[in-house]
């Protein structure tokens, strides 16, 4: 089924669509390669498993694990409104993506340096420097989001479910290899040497990605104009969004949905300490997440292409509720294998749901702007969720956190079913304005 935004572009700019189709296979392949190789770096910087372990060796306060997760979401989402402005009105995206990607690697380098010189500083100073370094990495990840997503929306104009499924699958295969390497070094090296080795490997692998980005082929968008000052750009955003009622419904439910993931950063570290598991189990948990993420990505892609993407969000919230239920009711390490399977499925489901819903809900000329607005607002919700989780653990217990996650996810499941509408089943009236 052809996406709603591509239909609009094909009616107005058929020559533009024809040029994109000539480069479709090339870009399909190189975007997949870029994403999959960068997955190696993100595997050794896994915010749900590896980084909580690193932080737990620097401090005994669980709130700091929540702070790391909050930084991940704040950095990855909050700057996206600025990232959208950086490409607003421009006909191309490629070189903006390239230079932000280079800056992103600087953040990874800083993380590796903190781990390398850990013996020269106190644990408090090391924690502070790590948080600063991770913030640099997370912020640049956020800045690149709108341009990269907009590039995909303009160049992957068919079989988007297959594309995202393939991207998740190939990334999962490389991530699986990375998780085996992670397990090896966690098993044979003690802290901090295991973290030093892994962070340097992640830094080295991450630099393959910019060379692949430079190989993208881009067809300039047929409309281009001079960017207005940032303050005018920001003031114009509410008017742009106001005319998109379907998008507003999606955005409201999506912000509430973020709080369903309150416990995700705590499952792995809870299992390690609860059942006295070897630290190498962190790599096993990461491996399970990646296998589930990569294999289910194809399933979500097929469902999304055939039936639309609303159903994917419903499945994802059901899996989140199952995670919390298992953590509460099953007191055995095996339960956390299933929880990791669910986590991987949720990650790949949301990777399909978010971009594809936005692509189909908003005017094609303003895709990056809507992505920036969405992810900036989501940043606040995603940042508050793990902080709330860390607070519950420190003041009450892990069980209190898991119960809260169960209740919130079930409430969000009902809200999503009632409020969100499938854009393919509604006639969309969009604003003619472009900012």
Report on this model:
This protein is mostly helical. It has a single domain (about 5-220, about 225-425), classed as Growth Hormone, Chain: A, CATH 1.20.1250. It is built from 19 helices and no strands. The chain has helices at about 5-10, 15-20, 25-45, 50-55, 65-75, 80-85, 95-115, 125-155, 160-190, 195-205, 210-215, 230-240, 245-260, 265-275, 280-305, 310-330, 335-360, 365-395, 400-420. α3 packs parallel to α9 (about 160-190) and α13 runs parallel beside α18. The longest helix is centred in the first third of the chain and has 33 residues, at about 125-155. Residues about 430-435 have low confidence and may be disordered.
Give the name of the CATH superfamily: MFS general substrate transporter like domains
Named CATH architecture:
Up-down Bundle
Please indicate the count of domains.
1
Largest sheet report: none
CATH topology description: Growth Hormone, Chain: A
| Shape assignment | globular
Q: Unreliable stretches, pLDDT < 50, 5 or more residues?
A: 429-435
Discrete helix count: 19
Give me the count of strands.
0
Specify the helix fraction band. over 70%
Secondary-structure element pattern, one letter each:
HHHHHHHHHHHHHHHHHHH
- Provide mean pLDDT, rounded: 82
User: In the CATH hierarchy, what is the class?
Assistant: Mainly Alpha
Report strand %. Answer: under 5%
């Amino acid at each position: 089924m052809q996406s709603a935004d591509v239909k609009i572009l094909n009616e107005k700019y058929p020559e533009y669509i024809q040029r994109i189709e000539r480069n479709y296979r090339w870009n399909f392949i190189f975007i997949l390669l870029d994403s999959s190789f960068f997955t190696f770096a993100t595997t050794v910087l896994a915010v749900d498993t590896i980084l909580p372990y690193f932080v737990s060796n620097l401090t005994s306060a669980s709130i700091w694990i929540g702070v790391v997760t909050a930084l991940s979401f704040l950095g990855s989402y909050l700057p996206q409104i600025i990232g959208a402005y950086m490409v607003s009105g421009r006909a191309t995206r490629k070189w903006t993506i390239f230079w932000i990607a280079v800056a992103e690697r600087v953040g990874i380098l800083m993380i590796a340096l903190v781990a390398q010189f850990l013996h020269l500083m106190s644990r408090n100073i090391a924690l502070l420097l790590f948080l600063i370094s991770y913030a640099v990495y997370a912020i640049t990840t956020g800045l690149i989001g709108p341009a990269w997503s907009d590039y995909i929306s303009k160049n992957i104009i068919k079989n988007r479910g297959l594309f995202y499924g393939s991207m998740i699958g190939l990334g999962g295969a490389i991530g699986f290899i990375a998780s085996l390497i992670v397990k090896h070094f966690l098993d044979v090296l003690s802290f901090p040497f295991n973290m030093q080795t892994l962070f340097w490997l992640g830094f080295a692998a991450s630099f393959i990605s910019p060379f692949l980005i430079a190989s993208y082929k881009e067809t300039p968008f047929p409309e281009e104009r001079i960017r207005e000052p940032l303050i005018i750009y920001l003031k114009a955003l509410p008017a742009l969004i106001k005319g998109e009622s379907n998008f507003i419904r999606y955005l409201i439910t999506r912000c509430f949905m973020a709080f369903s993931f309150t416990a995700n950063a705590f499952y792995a570290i809870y299992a390690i300490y609860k059942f006295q598991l070897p630290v190498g189990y962190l790599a096993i948990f990461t491996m399970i997440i990646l296998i589930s993420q990569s294999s289910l990505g194809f399933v979500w892609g097929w469902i999304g292409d055939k039936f639309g993407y609303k159903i994917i969000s419903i499945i994802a919230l059901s899996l989140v509720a199952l995670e919390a239920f298992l953590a509460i009711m099953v007191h055995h390490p095996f339960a956390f294998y299933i929880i990791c399977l669910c986590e991987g499925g949720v990650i790949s489901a949301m990777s399909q749901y978010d971009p594809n819903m936005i692509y189909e809900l908003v005017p094609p000329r303003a895709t990056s702007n809507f992505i920036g607005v969405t992810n900036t607002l989501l940043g606040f919700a995603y940042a508050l969720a793990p902080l709330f989780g860390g607070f519950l653990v420190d003041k009450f217990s892990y069980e209190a956190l898991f119960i809260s996650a169960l209740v919130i996810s079930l409430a969000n499941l009902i809200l999503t079913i009632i409020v969100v509408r499938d854009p393919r089943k509604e006639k969309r009236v969009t604003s003619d304005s472009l900012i």
